[in-house]
Design brief:
The protein is α/β, with parallel strands linked by helices. 46% of the residues lie in helices and 13% in strands. The protein contains 26 helices and 19 strands. The chain is globular.
Length: 631
Amino acid sequence: MAQTLNITYDRFQREAIDYINQGHSVIVSAPTGAGKTVIAEHIISTSIEKARGVIYTAPIKALSNQKFRDFQGQFQENIGILTGDVSLNAEAPVLIMTTEIFRNKILDQPDSLKKYSWVIFDEVHYIDNPERGTVWEESLIFLPQHMNILCLSATIPNIQQLAKWIESIHKKSVKTVVEEKRPVPLHFFFQCHNQISDHINILKRTAGGRINRLHALVSHLRQKDYLPCIYFVFDRKKAEDLASDLASFDFLNRKEREEMERLYNSLCQRFDLKDEKSAQLIYPLIRRGIAFHHAGMLPTLKEVIERLFTSRLLKVIFTTETFALGINMPSRSVIFDGLRKFYGRYVRNLKTRDFYQMAGRAGRRGIDKEGFIFCRVNPRRVNFEDIKRIIYGRPEEVRSQLNTSYATLLNLYEKYKEDLFKIYPLSLHNFQSRKHEQKEALRLLGAKLNLLQNLNYIQGHSLTDKGRFAKAVYGYELMLAELYEQNLLEYLDEFGLGVLVAAIVFEPRKNQNMQKLSKTGRKIRRVCEEIYAGIKRREAKYRIYPFSKQPYFHLSSCIEAWLRGTDFEKILRFTDTDEGELIRYFRMAIQILREMLQAPVISPVLKERVKETIRVINRDLVDAEKQLRSQ
């Protein structure tokens, strides 16, 4: 507790901590940068003091890794991390993990959670995410009764509804704490027809025809002393191109440049980046105080860029929206390249909540009196009324995205049998939905269960061996379990297993190329296509949507070369996938292999082969634990 005694809390922090001290669960809704993490730190420090365990969940691995580093600095050996590709100090009293890992533990290993009295859900508004929101909802539905909850969220208007739902299923009090005021207020500006103003109506009347110039905007920020700046752009290549366009600027004086060169070189040495081509290519920009940051970059290089930014030597960083998610990287100003982005299947105007998640990075607490937001406006792409709605509108409500996976269903069936249908009324989906939506959700649940019975995952009210295998591999259950049942996994060596799992996790971008497959790759693809066609046919018959994910073999040549021990830079010639994305897919492949190891029915021979495949994939730049140890 000594670590929190001398802190002066804001009103909302004090309110939340008082509720926590009284033993209540709490949901906190506050703007980005308001200081929500302080509340989590209070729980961690008091729990360590009382020898109670805490689980801290985060929506993405990058945020999990950052929290591990931050909390380890404060709480030393009391902090551990467990994600799909990292396990460090996994028996620690405070364990950081992705929400998927927590959900899986609840269903697969509930006894392992007995020593933890708190779970902290960071960025809980992710429950609204179409692809992964169901994981948050399932975690809250099946939460062990002995655990208290702290939910931290960006501003959400239906926080009371969320609290009432949790209270209704767990029969215990959930307090809400709302902070609407930002510690550092935001000042909005607009660049339109190459004019800059803080009055959008003035720009509306400005004569058109002039193109917005990046140099004009950045010169304005430099002149006004509005740097450092985070520039959000919703395209990786454009982030790099814009950074290059700015190369004629030099934001560093001689002393700063010397310090930047020293820091960059020492970080590259620490993270084994000295000989990496991408680290060398970005160096001329780094020397000028400019950088870019996106998911296609090497994870270690992204971390170097983040550390340079926190040193305050980087003055302008061009980045995609992941830089806004929980990672503590405030700046003096934020620029939006545009106010439209790709949402799953189509491009649409930014949600107000997403806009403020990014805009909230402007204004450094204790340094700046206000943060500055610049929106680059092209009236042909977004009209002025839409801009006002994005910036001045009410943030969107959080809505359920429940879509129970086959693995979750199998785990629930093993425990509850047909009573699992009584679980749906506990869901946020049921709490928020109309009668016809509830009816359809129950139909879909029944359809999935019927398909599992029809395909022999369940027999005579028990899981078959195939069902027990499938319940361990979340998201890719049917494909892998069908291969398992046909005994095909047993005949694959580490090359075959590597090709298979890479295909199962990979999602190609539009117009992405596939290299010619090896004999092994062709054989595995043929079998998978046949199995997938059968799965899709049955899902269509039962009106199950979305369909199970199809395997794509674009990375086959690449992963085979990697498994042979080829250097990372050389395997890039076998793919047009960005290097950072390639590492992410290799790490996802490792996660699937590790889940297979948890299946109670796999043979000792297959288990050893899976372990060997993990070992040969998980080396050098792919080894996420090595990156964390290099801190």
